[in-house]
Amino acid sequence: MSDHKQQWDREVDFLVLGAGSAGCVLANRLSADGRHQVLLVEAGPPDRNPFIHVPAGFLRLINNPAVSWRYRSEADSFNGGRVIDYPQGKMLGGTGSMNGMLYVRTAPTEHEHWVAQGCSGWSFEEAIRYYEQIENVDGSAPNHPLPVSSFLEKHPLSTAFLEACAQAGLAVHPHLNGPQREGAAAFHQNRMGRFRSGPAQTYLRNARSRRNLDVLTTSLAQRVIFEGTRAVGAELLGPSGRVRVMARREVIVSCGAIRSPHLLQLSGIGPAALLQSLNIPVVADRPAVGKNLRDHYSVRLTQRVRGIGTLNERTRGLALGAELLSYAFSGAGLLTLGASTCAAFARSSDQRTFPDLQLSFAPASFEPGTYQLEREGGMTINVYQSYPESVGTVQARSSDAAEAPAIAPNYLSTPADREALIAGLKLARHIFSMPALKKWGVQETLPGVEAQNDEQWLAYARAKGVSGYHLVGTCRMGGTDAVVDPQLRVRGVQSLRVIDASILPTCTSGNSNAPTLMVAEKGAAMLLADAK
């Protein structure tokens, strides 16, 4: 190795590429005992934008190019050639610093499917201990890093939604992280008091003073460097130019479901034909890299509301001033809310043995296809199919790391996905018709009266659906044909792991941030065990 030392600008034990949710967990856990020198690399800036720390501030971040990648898909042939937006966090904390802060564990059914696909060691029973070491639920475990908090603001429409779910025949639970997934409940948030408490504000902030942890921002990983098939470091591009960092133990890619497969491809790991077409030397021919892109396709039903204030009116004019005062002086009010307040998990048909739909409620309504609040009062149910069969791809367009990859989502490309989503949309309309919500609703504004039969429902979904921002699967964990093995080691090479949402074989029945944290906790434990 001495022959190569002159090539390196610095050396560390663990090199973590990507300071999103997973990267922040890894930086904390890998540096905790002081034995290992850890470098965490982030393409974006520090998490200093004030809107990061206000729970409702995510609405001001997702289209801000300073902190959001703002990826866009290729024209989706399955949805009329539409282009789908993918705002992904580009700052310390990644998307965990600009998401809706909703914390939902995986369900046992998902783990059963993963184990059956070759993910040994990933049963729910084996995962639960990692969730438990993450969570400080309503202050009950102050030594655990992540606040998992009940909502401060109990909006009357959220209560009415839960009552309407009960009237529609769904069970109502105390929260969504209990033993029963089917039914309705309020979300938990990653919030402490009035402020967002995501992975950057907890895991990473708690570790920043350690002498063996360094954090490098505004530095984009260009490629992983190999000696033969062993990962030995990475090339970065930052404010001072190109930097080559050697990893004495392992390189960990934690860039998320879009950037992680992209970086592997730029580094020579991926489908050989694609790499050769881009003049990228092939290190390992792994056809699965960038395949199996899965996401929750989100379709909204909205109703105009009268007789009660919603986020729409309370974030304008004098009402906004009152909310700002409430937030500043008591840490309460609508500015403590995230993307949704509560949700229901249900089955799309009686033939299903487990819930495959998520219906998330918000006491707000948005301009179609955006997160811009409407002026008049409204309420929304977002419908997701929890386990889409439709899969897409992420592919490098060139050897330039700064050029965004081509993203082809292929939403609603299978009959099963279309049938399940239509069933979910009908269920959402049924819940809106229950007495608890009907007394507040004036009329359905989306999709409105034009959606009556299945063909019309599908046309609406294809025209107005958006990403649920729960992308997974592009560095799939599994058997010999998968990208990573159950220890999250990249197959075909050595000393390289992927640890983030991209390794999940399927979508989870809920928001994806909590599962990502669990993956990172388990991945860190495996790294440390192998380093002994």
Question: Can you offer a commentary on this structure?
Answer:
This protein is α/β, with parallel strands linked by helices and 532 residues long. It has 2 domains: 1-74 and 84-148 and 199-295 and 472-532, FAD/NAD(P)-binding domain (3-Layer(bba) Sandwich), CATH 3.50.50; 152-186 and 297-385 and 412-464, Cholesterol Oxidase, domain 2 (2-Layer Sandwich), CATH 3.30.410. Helices cover 27% and strands 22% of the residues. The chain has 14 helices and 26 strands. The chain has helices at 21-31, 50-53, 108-116, 124-134, 156-167, 200-207, 256-266, 272-277, 311-314, 317-330, 415-432, 435-438, 454-464, 513-531, and strands spanning 10-17, 38-41, 71-72, 85-86, 102-103, 135-137, 146-148, 183-186, 188-189, 191-192, 195-196, 213-216, 220-227, 230-238, 241-253, 269-270, 284-285, 297-305, 342-346, 357-362, 378-385, 393-395, 406-408, 441-446, 466-467, 496-498. Strands 1, 2, 12, 13, 14, 15 and 26 form a 7-stranded mixed beta sheet that branches. Strands 8, 18, 19, 20, 21, 24 and 25 form a 7-stranded antiparallel beta sheet that branches. Helix 1 (21-31) runs parallel beside helix 6 and helix 1 packs parallel to helix 14 (513-531). It is globular and about 70 Å long.
